[in-house]
Design a protein that fits this description.
Length: about 500
């Protein structure tokens, strides 16, 4: 046997062993992932899309058509409402705010307008506002989203109408402030209630991005609610309606719904990507991604060949270990949300979440320039988890705001009836609240005490998890130009009191 033949035989044997080992490794990875999924199912985790789809909305309860009609009317309108959002509660010092309606002019994000001009623009769009106000009675927005398409072929972001929802909230925000300045409290309350109805209506979408938009719109409604509470001619009936609207919102359950749905969609998408490289290639098309940012690059033959190899490796090996890691990370995120729902304490839940992600090696450093993890096909499924963990913080902030707003409304109702604020929050139960509102940071009752000047102190202990006796200032060493009461780095989240003349 000559040397060449021996070399070929040895090379063939080595190649055969390599292929055999690779095949064995492929099935080991598949088995590990399948076993973990089976374990989750045995624990009662909803892993199938059918288990996590939002319930269908009866046609007579669906306000989507009214919403879309209002969007069309506002799109056709070219008044000053389009570019210039007017928000409520102008912060002037830590813990102190001035009502926007007391300003000489209507200060918007992009400029200053006269109050009569804003009021005229609101009247010009009265039909659109009436359509949005009708959502109050039927706060369901079912846009017939095809969740079975996943995030691949067939998914169209515009079908969620999330951008439109935020635009409509901004119009309602401006209208509420304008109404208050005009002295039309009843119309102002209705417009604010329509904002909250939009938040409630988005419960019919179980995407994480939908959850973020809900949080953003609710955050817009917080200072507007503060502005309404400064109005002297409010009635208890109006306050009770607003309070019930805020109570009806549930950001913790919404987060759980979104994470469960996207986990199920992820399993479906990955299965499709493994069966064909077509959709996966779209996802990894670096040329398209770069050109979309205004740059142009030339893809070489080497790059193309490298992509083909990466696709092959991902489909048969890399994806299994990465998906397993992603599923374990999802459990950490879901565990945090469920802990907060059961124990009312985000602080402990977030600490547990961080420890579990650390144990999995998932708390990677984020790209300093973009705030996003570096693209890595080996970990393209799991690399988004550190960013998704920030949802916990957003949910905690808006849930604290919701609890405080509900309490502030109850305090106002008590004052209207008794002429002064109560000595403690227990005095609000059961007439104005069913139970003392809790601080979602630590699960304890919100901190409250009346003050000698006829005002009150109401606060959450904030992100540092310590009771700083209602101090709204920034932590030592923090620098920020924002005075917002829930600004990052403040000691306590203190509900602002209006400045005195």
């Amino acid at each position: 046997m000559n040397l060449r033949r021996k070399t070929l035989i040895v090379a063939g044997a080595v190649l055969g062993v390599a292929i055999f080992i690779s095949v064995i490794h492929h099935y080991q990875l598949r088995f590990a992932e399948a076993s973990y999924i089976a374990k989750l199912k045995a624990q009662g985790e909803p892993m199938e899309l059918a288990q996590v789809l939002p319930p269908s909305v009866p046609a007579d309860q669906n306000s989507a058509s009214n919403f879309l009609k209002a969007v069309a009317l506002f799109t056709a309108d070219k008044s000053l409402l389009e570019p210039n959002e007017i928000s409520g509660m102008k912060m002037v010092a830590p813990g102190k705010a001035s009502p926007r309606i007391q300003q000489a002019n209507a200060e918007g994000d992009l400029g200053v307008n006269s109050w009569p001009d804003v009021a005229a623009a609101v009247r010009q769009n009265s039909n659109a506002f009436e359509l949005l106000q009708q959502i109050i009675e039927k706060p369901d927005l079912d846009f017939q989203i095809h969740y079975e398409h996943g995030f691949g072929d067939g998914f169209v972001f515009q079908n969620t109408h999330l951008v439109d929802a935020k635009r409509m909230a901004q119009r309602l925000e401006t209208a509420t402030i304008s109404d208050l300045h005009e002295g039309d409290t009843a119309s102002a309350v209705q417009n604010l209630r329509a904002m909250l109805a939009l938040v409630k209506g988005l419960d019919d979408q179980h995407y994480i991005i939908s959850d973020l938009v809900k949080i953003a719109v609710a955050a817009m409604a917080v200072p507007v609610t503060w502005e309404v509470l400064q109005t002297p001619n409010l009635t208890d009936g109006q306050l009770a309606e607003l309070q019930n609207d805020w109570i009806a919102l549930d950001f913790i359950q919404a987060s759980e719904n979104a994470m469960e749905l996207e986990r199920a969609i992820g399993l479906m998408d990955v299965a499709r990507w493994r069966s064909s490289s077509k959709e996966l290639l779209k996802l990894l098309d670096s040329e398209t991604a770069v050109q979309s940012m205004g740059a142009k690059v030339k893809i070489t033959d080497f790059d193309a060949a490298k992509t083909v190899v990466q696709l092959f490796m991902w489909r048969y090996w890399w994806s299994y270990s990465d998906e397993l890691l992603r599923l374990k990370g999802d459990e950490a995120l879901l565990g945090m949300t469920r802990f907060a729902k059961t124990n009312h304490s985000f602080q402990t839940g977030i600490q547990r979440q961080m420890a579990e992600l650390d144990a999995l090696g998932l708390n990677k450093a984020m790209n300093q320039s973009s705030g996003l993890p570096e693209q890595d096909i080996h970990h393209m499924l799991s690399q988004s988890l550190p960013g998704l963990s920030a949802l916990s913080r957003k949910a905690m902030i808006i849930e604290a705001a919701r609890q405080i707003v509900v309490t502030a409304i109850a305090l106002k109702r008590y004052q209207l009836k008794h002429g002064n604020y109560p000595p403690d929050l227990d005095s609000l139960v059961p007439e104005f609240v069913s139970a003392v509102p809790f601080d979602p940071v630590d699960g304890q009752p919100l901190r409250y005490r009346p003050k000698a000047d006829g005002t009150f102190l109401l606060y959450s202990i904030g992100e540092n998890g310590k009771d700083d006796n209602g101090n709204p200032s920034l932590e030592r060493g923090r620098i920020s130009s924002s005075l917002y009461w829930q600004n990052y780095g403040v000691l306590d989240w203190v509900w602002p009191q209006p400045v005195t003349p």
